[in-house]
Amino acid sequence: MSALMDIWHAIQAVVTSADYWTLGAAILVVIVAGFIMESLGSLISVTVVSLLVFVLIKYVLAMTVGNQHDAEALYLSDWQAFVDLKMLTLLAYAIVFGVLISVVNLIRSAVR
User: Fold this and answer.
1) DSSP per-residue string spanning 23-73
2) How far apart are alpha carbons 104 and 112 in whole angstroms?
3) Contacts 24+ apart (CB under 8 A), 39-48
4) Which of 2, 1, 25, 12 is nearest to 95 (CA)?
5) How far is Cα 28 from Cα 30, in angstroms, rounded to an integer?
6) What is the pTM of this model?
7) 108/95 Cα distance (integer angstroms)
8) Helices 43-64/71-83 angle, 10° precision
């Protein structure tokens, strides 16, 4: 039971600690992925690809909105942050994206 509580607290930390740009990028990626996905059988692969797209969007946002002009330094710091990333945080992102993508896909399927 404590493992589920750890995952739940990690999910809450991911959702509540994000700024508006991050939430906007995540919502955009989730909606597009939910509309692109053909069936719930491809949820895992669509979630992994959407997480990669989200990372690329966050990189572009840091370069433009965050006024980071040194792309190499930003890339190296982001890579180091990824290496130091805890697996629980990555699991929390994957769960949030997977659930939201499936909800968007189910809504799209119900409307069609």
Assistant:
1) HHHHHHHHHHHHHH--SGGGHHHHHHHHHHHHHHHHHHHHHHTT----HHH
2) 12
3) 40/102, 40/105, 40/106, 43/98, 43/101, 43/102, 43/105, 44/98, 46/101, 47/94, 47/97, 47/98, 47/101, 48/94
4) 12
5) 6
6) 0.83
7) 20
8) 140
Residue whose pair of structure tokens reads 């690329």 in the numeric block: 56
**pLDDT on residue 68:** 67
pLDDT in tens, 80-112: 777 777 888 888 999 999 999 999 999 998 998
Residue 28 clears pLDDT 90, i.e. is over it: yes
48: CB partners within 8 A, 6+ apart: 94
pLDDT digits (tens, 9 = 90+) for 32-86: 999 999 888 899 999 999 999 998 888 888 777 766 667 777 777 777 777 777 8
Q: Which residues contact 74 (CB under 8 A, 6 or more apart)?
A: 59, 62, 63, 68
